[in-house]
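call fold target=Glucose-6-phosphate dehydrogenase assembly protein OpcA
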Amino acid sequence: MKIDLTETTSSKINSALVQARRDIGTPAIGMVLTLVIVTDEENAYDALKSAYDASHEHPSRILVVIKRVSRSPRSRRDARLDAEIRVGADAGTGETVVLRLHGELVDHAQSVVLPLLLPDAPVVVWWPEFSPADLAGDPLGALGQRRITDTYAAEDPLAALSGRAAAYAPGDTDLSWTRITPWRSMLAAALDQQRVSIVSATVEGEEDNPSCELLAMWLADRLHVPVERKPSNGPGLTSVRLETKEGAVVLDRADGGLATLRMPGQPDRAVALKRRETAELLAEELRRLDPDNTYASALKFGVSRLAASASASAAPAEAAEAPAAKPKPARKATAK
């Protein structure tokens, strides 16, 4: 069922939601959280599709906030709220309200969203594309226990990572971090089997890919060893190599789907490491609503510090490989 409301209010939207549930015969609310999606018209469809798929695991009230920028000075002064309500089969396993804000109301989105939040339920705010510099300081971000962004969508992903580290607050997270969860799990399991001392590490992947940088920072932060970041043609993250005294532990994924795990003294093993869709990443993030301290620690390690540690570790190696200076020939002693 779809209901369109023009020039409406939050109170009228709540009343329409209650009536719509009664009309389709499901008056009881079985939703576990409120998911606030802050996006634009161009990206709203894809974001909603991912949220609908994730709602099969996490039934939610989905509030889509679309800020419509007015062109003329007069229209910018006129505040107006239009809403589209979707319940039943048109809203996944929960209910959806698409909010289109016009005029001065664009700067006060939190006043529209606040009355529509589910009572006594967690709130998650998600920016699929463009996000504010300070997530927790944003008026809409302040409503959420968890704040999800994606630095992969930024124009400069590495600068975005640095900005996330500077403005980090408990509850912030990044889908670029979520993408490397299978890699981190596989590497941790491999090291548990080997029980070896790591000397250095190398991470290969697409240049300026934030997931590759986050994995490298996580390894450097947890292992306290130099980590080198090497670019590759992708797709995404392609290889991780951990150097040990007994040999190298290598997790290699050349095709974006099936990876090969190589460990000293053991046969090669094929492991599934397919690239996941946004809906799967979102569903994973909705499973936990507490702060991710591991992400915070890796993020604060910093891209610049990672590059500095890699260059510092390369300097002694270059000095060792440099040819030794030829000794000067000894002078012959002459009798006087």
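return ok
DSSP finds eleven helices and 14 strands in the chain. Confidence is low (pLDDT under 50) at residues 315-336.
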